[in-house]
Structure formats: C-alpha cells, structure tokens
C-alpha cells in the first residue's frame, strides 16, 4: 500500500462548478498536510497548508483534514478556467525533512 | 526576490554522460531539498541539505547520484553515467528554516530542470 493515494483523474468540470479533490494516507505519523498546484512545465506552488485535523479556508479554497479516517480534501468553489492545473496533495510528519506527495490529479475547468 | 532559480531548464545527455543540475535558493534561505518527478508519477523526495551538510539523503539512489550545497554557490545535484531511466523533471525547493520547524509549509519550489537521456 502506498503511503499517499490520490484519485487518479483526469477531472473535467464546467466553469462555476464545485470541485472536490481527495487523498488518503496510511502513515499515522503525518501531522502536516498541504495542497500544491502545478501548472504545466512549472514548479509546485503551495495552495493550502494545514496542521493536524480540521478545516482551513482561503478564498475559494477549503482544505479539510480528518486524521481519524486518514483522509484529506481540497474543495474549490466557483471554479475558473485559470484553476486548470495539476493538484498534488503532500504531507509530512514534521519531524523529518520529507514531503510525501500523491501522484496528482489534472483538473480542467471548461469555460 | 528572484525565487528559487534552477538551471539549466532543459538538459539533454547521452547515456553514460554526467548531468549537473544547479539550484540557487531564495535569498535568506539556507535549506535546500531536491525532488524528482517521473512521468505519470508524483514528486519523490531525494535529499535535504544545509550549507556544507547533508541532513537526509534517504531518497537518493545508492549509486551514481550525489548532492552538495557548498558554503559559496548553488546546490548541485550530480548524476554520473546517466541512463534512460534518469529522464525526469528534477525540482529544487528551499526554506528559511528546516522542515522540523515548518513541516513543509515554508517550501518554495523552483521551476525544475527537465533531464532527457538519449
């Protein structure tokens, strides 16, 4: 079983839709949870950063962490064509240097 | 603020040659991390360095790969005797403090070097 599993996609939605992206993990030591956005031929850009369980909201983006279920989600409200990118979940135990990433899901928002 | 600078952006090497990838961290950042992204795969951790020290190299292949971050100059990821399987995008990230303090939130990634081995 991989440490981090992410829905494979790709995902195509119409503009204005609510998008739900999910990851599950197996390592109970993970304490820090992140979502990165990666445009084609670019480096990952940090979108959301959450410590432990709970919700965090930033504009149209909401990150949820459920440590009891080892499940994290990213919700995008009122999706825009500019949101079209690959989204990567990542997590770390906080006591070492590694970020463990999911494979990423490619999102396309149709105008 | 120039961000994390990686060069070259694209590198083509023949099998058996050496590849050198360079990373200049953001100004004020003294911690550097290298990740590799294979086609259809997520980012995989390779190595974490501070100036003149390798902190964690648990993700580095045992042979042919090495990394350094000298007191002066950029961090270098070196791949000797490249093989086709080394073809990938290599990303560098930097942070102002170590991951122990930031848990990953302080990372800034560069745009990567795309290595193609022919």
Question: Keywords, please?
Answer:
heterodimer; A: 111 residues; mainly beta; 6-stranded mixed β-sheet; 5-stranded antiparallel β-sheet; 11 strands; B: 118 residues
Characterization of the model:
The complex is a heterodimer of chains A (111) and B (118). Helices cover 0% and strands 55% of the residues of chain A. Chain A is mostly beta strands. In chain A, strands 2, 4, 5, 9, 10 and 11 form a 6-stranded mixed beta sheet that branches. Chain A is globular. Chain B has 118 residues and is mainly β. In chain B, strand 7 and strand 8 form a beta hairpin. The longest helix of chain B is centred in the last third of the chain and has 4 residues. Chain B starts with a strand and ends with a strand. At the A-B interface, strand 4, strand 5, strand 9 and strand 10 of A face strand 5 and strand 10 of B.
Radius of gyration of chain B: 13 Å
Total DSSP E strands of chain A: 11
Helix run count of chain A: 0
Instruction: Find the structural class of chain A using helix and strand composition.
Output: mainly beta
* SSE order of chain B, one letter for each helix or strand: EEEEEEEEEHEE
Q: Radius of gyration of chain A, rounded?
A: 13 Å
Beta-strand content bin of chain A: over 45%
Largest sheet of chain A: 6 strands, mixed
Mean pLDDT of chain B, to the nearest integer, reads: 90
Termini separation of chain B comes to: 36 Å
Number of distinct helices of chain B: 1
* Dominant shape of chain B: globular
Percentage beta strand of chain B: over 45%
Task: Report the biggest beta sheet of chain B as strand number plus sense, adding barrel if it closes.
Answer: 7 strands, mixed
Helix content of chain A: under 10%
Instruction: Using the alpha-carbon principal axes, give the shape of chain A.
Output: globular
Instruction: Note the gap between the termini of chain A.
Output: 38 Å
Overall structural class of chain B, as computed from helix and strand content, comes to mainly beta
- Unreliable sequence segments of chain A: none
- How many DSSP-defined strands of chain B? 11
Low-confidence stretches of chain B: none
């Amino acid at each position: 079983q991989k440490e981090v599993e992410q829905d494979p996609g790709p995902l195509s939605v119409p503009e204005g839709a609510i998008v739900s992206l999910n990851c599950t993990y197996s390592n109970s030591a993970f304490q820090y949870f992140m979502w990165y956005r990666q445009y084609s031929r670019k480096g990952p850009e940090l979108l959301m950063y959450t410590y432990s369980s709970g919700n965090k909201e930033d504009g149209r983006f909401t990150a949820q962490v459920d440590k009891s279920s080892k499940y994290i989600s990213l919700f995008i409200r009122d999706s825009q064509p500019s949101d079209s990118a690959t989204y990567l979940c990542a997590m770390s135990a906080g006591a070492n240097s590694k970020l463990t990433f999911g494979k990423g899901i490619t999102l396309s928002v149709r105008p | 603020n120039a961000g994390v600078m990686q060069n070259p952006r694209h590198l083509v090497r023949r099998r058996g040659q050496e590849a050198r990838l360079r990373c200049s961290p953001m100004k004020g950042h003294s911690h550097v991390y290298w990740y590799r992204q294979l086609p259809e795969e997520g980012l995989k951790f390779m190595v974490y360095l501070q100036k003149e020290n390798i902190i964690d190299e648990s993700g580095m292949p045992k042979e042919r790969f090495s990394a350094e971050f000298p007191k002066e100059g950029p961090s270098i990821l070196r791949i000797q005797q490249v093989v086709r399987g080394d073809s990938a995008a290599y990303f560098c990230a930097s942070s102002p403090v170590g991951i122990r303090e930031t848990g990953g939130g302080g990372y800034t990634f560069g745009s990567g070097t795309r290595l193609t081995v022919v």
